[in-house]
């Protein structure tokens, strides 16, 4: 469908690319991605419930971890349900308004998560390099303000990206070369010169992802440099290993997609799927498998649940 805008005919919907060309493989992928999405929901909800229910985890680090799990859950939900519906549909369309809404929340949650990971790196720096002052510096009020600042920064970033994208005229074609709406593939469909817009978008998204990544690498390098003893370095690496793993999973694909001109690579769509669907599922696995405190808290919560259930039955 099309609508008139000025003297041009504007598209009112976009057609999304297919992950697989055959209905049979689409059905298989639907099951796989459904399991991935359900695992993302269960894993991140488990961390959120565990952190909030266990008194031993009511520390700044786990408060930030709970917020990271919430962002992972939201980030996956922005794209996964629509992708699952498209697996069962022959015509993978999305309205213009829905496309812009998806684009907005994708960058809103994604940027907030990057800012939060940077805050988590600062938390680890204070905990390891200034342990005697940790409780005074990373108090609950400061942590709440930092989380609020992450959400605010994500909102501002996403608003700028969405406004820049919506200002462009889209009069055809309307085939988005991706499985969901994102800035790079959408603005390529604009029926006007987008060179300046691409530079603005890259300088926005690319600057955020690259600068946050540099800050993260610098903070962890500073931690290792300040700790002289081999035993101290080993403990620091053990503490930060899970965080570094998540940072690599998130910032690697993000820098690849956004911190370069919008030239098309054959692996772009696959990288987008990994970044938006797979990574949010892996984050809770990384934190629970490498974190003894979280695993112990989950066991205590499970034991309390079983005990409570037995009391109710009896």
Automatic annotation (TrEMBL):
Keywords: Cell membrane, G-protein coupled receptor, Membrane, Olfaction, Receptor, Sensory transduction, Transducer, Transmembrane, Transmembrane helix. The chain crosses the membrane at residues 27-49, 61-84, 104-125, 137-156, 206-225, 237-259, 271-289. It is a multi-pass membrane protein. InterPro entries: GPCR_Rhodpsn, GPCR_Rhodpsn_7TM, Olfact_rcpt, Olfactory_Receptors. GO terms for molecular function: G protein-coupled receptor activity; olfactory receptor activity. It comes from the Eukaryota. Its main location: membrane. Residues 43-287 form the G-protein coupled receptors family 1 profile domain. GO terms for cellular component: plasma membrane. It is found in: Cell membrane. Belongs to the G-protein coupled receptor 1 family. This is Olfactory receptor.
């Amino acid at each position: 469908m099309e609508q008139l805008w000025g003297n041009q005919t504007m598209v009112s919907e976009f057609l999304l690319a297919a992950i697989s060309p055959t209905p049979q493989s689409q059905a298989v992928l639907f099951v796989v991605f459904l399991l991935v999405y359900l695992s993302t929901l269960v894993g991140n909800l488990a961390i959120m419930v565990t952190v909030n229910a266990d008194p031993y985890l009511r520390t700044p680090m786990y408060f930030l971890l709970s917020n990271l799990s919430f962002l992972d859950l939201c980030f996956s939900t922005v794209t996964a349900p629509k992708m699952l519906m498209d697996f069962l549909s022959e015509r993978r369309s999305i309205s213009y308004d829905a496309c812009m809404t998806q684009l907005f929340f994708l960058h809103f949650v994604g940027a907030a998560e990057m800012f939060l990971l940077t805050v988590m790196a600062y938390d680890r720096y204070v905990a390891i390099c200034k342990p005697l002052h940790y409780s005074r510096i990373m108090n609950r009020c400061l942590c709440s303000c930092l989380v609020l600042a992450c959400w605010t920064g994500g909102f501002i970033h996403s608003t700028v990206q969405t406004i820049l994208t919506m200002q462009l005229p889209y009069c055809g074609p309307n085939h988005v070369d991706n499985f969901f709406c994102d800035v790079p593939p959408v603005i390529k469909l604009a029926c006007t010169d987008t060179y300046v817009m691409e530079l603005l978008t890259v300088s926005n998204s690319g600057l955020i992802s690259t600068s946050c990544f540099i800050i993260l690498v610098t903070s962890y390098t500073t931690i290792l440099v300040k700790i002289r003893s081999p035993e101290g370095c080993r403990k620091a690496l053990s503490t930060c290993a899970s965080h570094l793993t998540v940072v690599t999973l998130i910032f690697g694909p993000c820098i690849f997609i956004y911190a370069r001109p919008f030239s098309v690579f054959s692996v772009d769509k696959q990288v987008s799927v990994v970044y938006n669907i797979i990574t949010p599922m892996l984050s809770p696995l990384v934190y629970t498998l490498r974190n003894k405190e979280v695993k112990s808290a989950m066991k205590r919560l499970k034991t309390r649940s079983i005990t409570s259930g037995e009391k109710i039955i009896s």
